[in-house]
Amino acid sequence: MKFRNILVVIAASLMLSACADWIYRIDVPQGNFLDERDVSKLRINMTKEQVVYVLGKPVVEDSFDHDTWYYLYQMKRGMAKRGKDFRKELTLSFVDNRVSEVSGDFELSEDFYTPLDE
Question: What span is annotated as the signal peptide, if there is one (predicted)?
Answer without folding.
Answer: 1-20
